[in-house]
Amino acid sequence: MYIEGFRIASLDQLEQIKSGCASTIDNYATTSAAASAIPGGAGVVADIPIMFKMFSALRSRYSLDNVNAADIKVYVAQTSIVEGLATKVFECATIKGVEKFIAQFAAKTLGKTIASWIPGIGTVFAGYTGYKLTKLAGETYSDDCYKLCREILNV
Asked: How many C-beta atoms surround the C-beta of residue 32 within 10 A?
């Protein structure tokens, strides 16, 4: 079955895309670190648009940006792809989806906010935590996109 807008032709191409996503994730994680180092919790507020843009960039790299979510649902129903995976990937195309995704890391995000108020070492810790959280979220999302693409290619 063909999915309109999906442009990955082989597993080799998919592997190259996955390895290239690491630099994209690092760039967004660095941006998050800079925002997180701002005292007063501005980093947490900045995490949502940063992750929204990162998830959008990752979907684009995996050729999932031009794929209609409804087409994926039909495809999922006709194949062995796990529907939860497809739902998770496309849910992050919305701000609410990103907020839900970030909620998985809520306890760590709270520590980052509190730490940003401590002079000196707090801003360093908050920046480091912002970097690590964004990197972890990006890697997790990239893995989900990779798995979905791999399933599409294997059918």
From this structure: 28
- pLDDT tens digits, residue range 42-64? 556 677 889 889 999 999 999 88
pTM, two decimal places: 0.79
For the chain, the distance separating the N- and C-terminal CA atoms, rounded to the nearest angstrom, is 8
Q: Range of 95's domain? A: 11-154
* Neighbour count for residue 5 (Cβ, 10 Å): 11
Number of domains in the chain: 1
Residue given tokens 């063909």 in the structure block: 2
**Which band of pLDDT confidence, cut at 50, 70 and 90, is reported for residue 13?**
very high
- Is 39 part of a structural domain of the chain? yes
